[in-house]
């Protein structure tokens, strides 16, 4: 017997709901993809703007760390003037 | 007419799991990774079974069996490429699945989360064991490096390593037992996945809003069967793209050279999915400290269920928490990059700072979100 059944977590027993108003439309009375382009596409841009300043700054910072580290490593791999003077 | 089959225990389990399962109406693409990981596991088990029909675990034979018979046996090149790249995609799915868990507070399902972390550990072990089997240079030296870490254990370390090796170095005994373990572990993982789902269906899936969705659920079939199918197409497409077009993109050229105990590769490094942990291991100058940090890098996930709770589940409504989370993502990428670099400056200092930042996330995320709870 599934625990979710014991906890009554199945259709017909999900939770005690009061004050619910139910509407029903036949599939023949509705358009399945209403607003998919007219509202969906602008929504993509809205979602992008909402998350831009949370995602982009850390990624930008990470790229700067990577770029700077690679430049610094290349610089340290080069011979510096006077580096081997003490061996003369 | 009475349909007895509807009420049989097996069909009842299947029906309640993938047909009539009450699922939140608003779960997003981040909830696809569970099913994708199931597909990955099935694919790895199947392709692994096919490969095992032609594999011999012996130090004199394994390398040549892999190179030659996988060229001679019909389509074994395909199964090998699928198995090798499938492992990479398995870890992509794992890390994104865990990222979803961290972001949306899924760790509050304590049993599900704990079993999930155990699954992660076993999959990591299985991937490590499997990489040794072709017996290339990186296979041999990766096995030597990682198994030698156990010598850091106080008092018993040396004996543990000899016991693991089955001898005084990584040799034939090690290869044969690694093959056996690599074969068996995925089936244990499969059992744990069943347990993982069992505890998940106890409460039902969470959702991106972090609120109860008991008032707004839909049946799993057709909605999420179709959504999972679409996700599978987007996941399997790039996997097959790699298999057919560039199967060694994520591999190491050293593994095309037979393993040689007398020749140490210039850069010993694991596959990409272990690099973040490898960077953390090398960041600590002390051997035992590094091993502890390596273990802690994964085991820290066990802390999340007991971390300070927020008023609203997940980070969706916590701007500072979100910034910290994406900083963790950046740190993870940088640790992966740092793990591939040689032990030279400035990579050493950067690895140490990044390791500190990685663990700082888990320490700070609770207090930062609670501060916002108190302020607002």
What would you note in describing this structure?
Chain A: Pfam families: UcrQ (PF02939). Chain A: Keywords: Electron transport, Membrane, Mitochondrion, Mitochondrion inner membrane, Respiratory chain, Transmembrane, Transmembrane helix, Transport. Chain A: InterPro entries: Cyt_bc1_su8 (IPR004205), Cyt_bc1_su8_sf (IPR036642). Chain A: It is a single-pass membrane protein. The complex is a heterodimer of chains A (88) and B (376). By secondary structure, chain A is mostly helical. Chain A has a domain at 53-78. Chain A is 48% helix and 0% strand. Chain B has 13 helices and two strands, in the order H-E-H-H-H-H-H-H-H-E-H-H-H-H-H. Chain B has helices spanning 9-18, 33-52, 62-72, 76-104, 110-132, 137-148, 157-165, 172-203, 223-245, 275-283, 287-299, 319-339, 347-375; strands spanning 22-24, 217-219. In chain B, strands 1-2 form a two-stranded antiparallel sheet. In chain B, helix 4 (76-104) packs across helix 9 (223-245). The A-B interface holds A 2-5, 7, 9-11, 14-15, 17, 20, 54-55, 57-59, 61-62, 65-66, 69, 72-73, 76 and B 16, 20, 22, 198-199, 201-204, 212, 214-215, 217, 219, 319, 322-323, 326-327, 329-331, 333-334, 337, 341, 344-347, 350.
């Amino acid at each position: 017997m599934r625990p979710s059944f014991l906890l009554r977590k199945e259709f017909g027993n999900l939770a005690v709901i009061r004050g619910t108003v139910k509407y029903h439309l036949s599939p023949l009375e509705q358009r399945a993809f209403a607003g998919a382009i007219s509202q969906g596409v602008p929504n993509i841009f809205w979602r992008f703007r909402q998350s831009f300043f949370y995602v982009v700054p850390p990624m930008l910072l990470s790229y700067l760390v990577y770029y700077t580290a690679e430049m610094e490593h290349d610089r340290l791999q080069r011979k510096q003037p006077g580096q081997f003077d003490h061996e003369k | 007419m009475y349909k007895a089959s509807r009420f049989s225990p097996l069909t009842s389990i299947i029906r309640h799991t993938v047909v009539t399962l009450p699922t939140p109406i608003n779960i997003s693409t981040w909830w696809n990774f569970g099913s994708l990981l199931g597909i990955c596991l099935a694919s790895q088990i199947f392709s692994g079974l096919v490969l095992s029909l032609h594999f011999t675990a012996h130090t004199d034979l394994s390398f040549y069996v892999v190179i030659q018979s996988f060229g001679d046996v019909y389509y074994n090149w395909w199964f090998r490429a699928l198995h090798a790249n499938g492992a990479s995609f398995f870890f992509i799915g794992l890390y994104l699945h865990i990222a979803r868990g961290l972001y949306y507070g899924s760790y509050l399902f304590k049993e599900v989360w704990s079993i999930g972390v155990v699954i992660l550990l076993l999959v990591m072990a299985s991937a490590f064991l499997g990489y040794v089997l072709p017996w290339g240079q990186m296979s041999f030296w990766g096995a030597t490096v990682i198994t030698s870490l156990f010598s850091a254990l106080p008092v018993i370390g040396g004996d543990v390593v000899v016991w693991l090796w089955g001898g005084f170095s990584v040799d034939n005994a090690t290869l044969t037992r690694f093959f056996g373990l690599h074969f068996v572990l995925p089936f244990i993982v499969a059992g744990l996945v069943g347990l993982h789902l069992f505890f998940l269906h106890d409460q039902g899936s969470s959702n991106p809003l972090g609120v109860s969705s008991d008032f707004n659920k839909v049946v799993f079939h057709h909605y999420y069967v179709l959504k999972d199918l679409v996700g599978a197409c987007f996941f399997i497409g790039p996997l097959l793209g790699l298999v057919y077009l560039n199967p060694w993109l994520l591999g190491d050229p050293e593994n095309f050279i037979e393993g040689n105990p007398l020749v140490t590769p210039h850069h010993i490094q694991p596959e990409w999915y272990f690099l973040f942990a490898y960077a953390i291991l090398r960041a600590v100058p002390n051997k035992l400290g590094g091993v502890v940090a390596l273990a802690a890098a994964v085991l820290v996930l066990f802390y999340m269920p007991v971390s300070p709770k927020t008023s609203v589940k997940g980070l969706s409504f916590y701007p500072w928490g979100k910034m910290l989370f994406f900083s963790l993502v950046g740190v993870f990428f940088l640790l992966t990059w740092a793990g591939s670099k040689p032990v030279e400056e400035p990579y050493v200092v950067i690895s140490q700072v990044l390791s500190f930042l990685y663990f700082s996330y888990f320490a700070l995320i609770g207090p930062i979100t609670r501060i916002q709870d108190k302020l607002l």
